[in-house]
Specification:
By secondary structure, the chain is α+β, with helices and mostly antiparallel strands. The chain is 54% helix and 18% strand. Among the domains are: 46 residues, no CATH class; 101 residues, 2-Layer Sandwich (Tetrahydropterin Synthase, Chain A), CATH 3.30.479; 46 residues, no CATH class. Helix 3 packs across helix 5 and helix 8 packs across helix 9. The N and C termini lie far apart (183 Å).
Length: 348
């Protein structure tokens, strides 16, 4: 019983010691193992057994990509402008042994290396070039830091300039310059818009005048064609009438009656001269009553007042908008002259 009481604590101690020597390394992690103070190996993810008292874990390293947002660094440009630049560095640990034994406090060393590299690069650029060349600065810093940190087991994958903070007076000057540039662009755009509007208005007026001239030309052509067509139809109707009279073979009685009707219109008391046909005497002798009706031999004074005329219906195709009595009278005289054309008697 006494032996059992003595062995029980020893057994518990051995069990606890064995359990403490069983280690599980998580995924994307690595453990650096030392044997009696010297580097022995690097444990990857999985189950491992550590020898008690002679082995120890010198470092637990994360193999995932890490991000370090360093404090803004004071830099001076080539044209002596002091400003602050804030950078962000992305890196991965590719060799846990070098990361553990290569440099003391590797993150602090990376921060100082980043600040000195940034000062060297910005010191060779002017202010305007610094503000417009972020991609160039990022690529140069990434190359320099990656090469310098190989001995520390660090792989720099990306460097970004987070903020560029120039002095207050430089910011005010930049704002004024930006405002002046915007006002300049606004003035140029307004001038171009005014120019385009004037040109467009002039082009519109030109097209309007051209269309008005073409419309007036087409209207005049249409009126001329209508007038020519009307005249042609009138003469064609007269020709058809004469042809119909010729084909009708009317007798002498009808011709005499038509001549008397025409003589009645001529001898209305307004004409100063009347041209009598050669056979009028025979007509009068055969138709005595008609001679009295038409007033032959009457001493009635000549009526010199203007003859009342009835204006013909307006022809929208041929007639002009304004018709004066003079033009109407001239047209009636022309029609009367056409009607007084002698008609050849048909041969019996």
């Amino acid at each position: 019983m006494q032996l059992y009481m003595v062995l029980l604590p020893v057994i518990l101690f051995v069990l606890i010691l064995l359990l403490s020597c069983i280690k599980v390394v998580p995924q994307a992690n690595a453990y650096v193992i030392e044997f009696l103070g010297s580097y022995k190996s690097t444990w990857e993810h999985g189950l491992h057994l550590k020898i008690p008292f002679v082995e120890r874990i010198a470092g637990k390293i994360s193999l995932k990509e890490q991000v370090c947002d360093f404090a803004p660094s004071n830099v001076i440009t080539k044209d002596n402008v002091s400003m602050k630049i804030d950078t962000v560095v992305y890196f991965k640990i590719f060799d846990p042994r070098l990361y553990t034994y290569g440099v003391d406090r590797p993150i602090s060393a990376l921060e100082n290396l980043n600040a000195t590299t940034l000062r060297n690069i910005i010191g060779g650029m002017e202010l305007d070039q610094t503000l417009t060349s972020r991609d160039i600065i990022n690529s140069q810093m990434q190359q320099i830091l990656d090469i310098a940190t190989d001995a520390w087991g660090i792989k720099v994958t990306r460097v970004e300039l987070k903020n560029i903070i120039p002095p207050a007076e430089i910011q005010n000057a930049m704002e004024k310059q930006m405002k002046a540039e915007r006002e300049k662009r606004q003035t140029i755009l307004e001038a171009e818009a005014h120019k385009e509007s004037v040109v467009a208005r002039a082009e519109g007026d030109k097209q309007a005048r051209i269309l008005a001239a073409e419309a007036e030309r087409d209207a005049q052509i249409a009126r001329a064609q209508g007038r020519a067509q009307s005249i042609m139809l009138v003469y064609q109707a007269e020709a058809d009438g004469l042809k119909a009279l010729k084909e009708a073979r009317i007798d002498d009685a009808v011709l005499k009656l038509k001549g008397i009707e025409a003589l009645k219109d001529v001898s209305d008391g307004r004409a100063t001269k009347i041209y009598m046909p050669t056979d009028l005497s025979g007509v009068i002798s055969s138709l005595g009553l008609l001679s009295e009706s038409i007033g032959i031999g009457d001493a009635t004074p000549i009526d010199r007042s203007p003859r009342p005329m009835q204006a013909p219906a307006a022809d929208p195709c041929c007639d002009e908008p304004e018709r004066t009595p003079e033009t109407v009278r001239m047209k009636k005289d022309e029609q009367r002259r056409q009607m007084s054309v002698p008609v050849r008697r048909p041969e019996n």
